[in-house]
Amino acid sequence: xxxxxxxxxxxxxxxxxxxxxxxxxxxxxxxxxxxxxxxxxxxxxxxxxxxxxxxxxxxxxxxxxxxxxxxxxxxxxxxxxxxxxxxxxxxxxxxxxxxxxxxxxxxxxxxxxxxxxxxxxxxxxxxxxxxxxxxxxxxxxxxxxxxxxxxxxxxxxxxxxxxxxxxxxxxxxxxxxxxxxxxxxxxxxxxxxxxxxxxxxxxxxxxxxxxxxxxxxxxxxxxxxxxxxxxxxxxxxxxxxxxxxxxxxxxxxxxxxx
Length: 258
Ligand code: IPD
Ligand code: CA
Ligand code: CA
Description:
2 domains, binds D-MYO-inositol-1-phosphate, eight-stranded mixed beta sheet, binds calcium ion, single chain, D-Maltodextrin-Binding Protein, domain 2, alpha+beta
């Protein structure tokens, strides 16, 4: 029932993304920062997702980007990003998705990420593997950072600190390492799970950006930690997700210790 509801909720959100995509009249407003957008599609997707979940599990805890926490005291928490990649979405760039993770007593047990434009539905269940449209996923085999293809993202507000996003980025770029920037952390993580990227790092993510994608990477055989190498938590901002083989080396690069 949990899996079925997760699929239905993800699909309900994705239908909204398809409906409003490239709509010139899409209502757009700003959150903190002029480029941190929220559109009417974010709100509509979130509403459709939450209604779908609540119709089966009315007492489950909801944590969703636009409405925040709807606490119930339940052991189950649904962590929702109604559109991950809103800037892309608002510009008609089809690299965006719905991302939903389910936490049970503090452990992420299931996740779904759906990009309806590429028709890519990612699903992972703890201990059961990660899948792209029912095909089992495995991370890449690359063992060297210098030969890796990486992806990262940048926050909406500049982080002025040593080893901030620009400093890390420049270290990789100076060595000629390809570092992509897709604009959707959930897709970045899924593409690590799919073996398209060898590693992903970002300095400031929220729980809804990473909860589902984290499980995708782990279940595809990869590794996800913070920048100190501590186990992943959705409630801290730093994330390093790799194929596992380059993880220790990536920690050195990100922390400027190589
Ligand atoms: C953003 C995307 C982006 C990442 C930002 C996130 P949003 O989420 O995941 O890739 O770099 O940090 O905030 O705002 O599109 O849901
Ligand atoms: Ca997001
Ligand atoms: Ca979002």
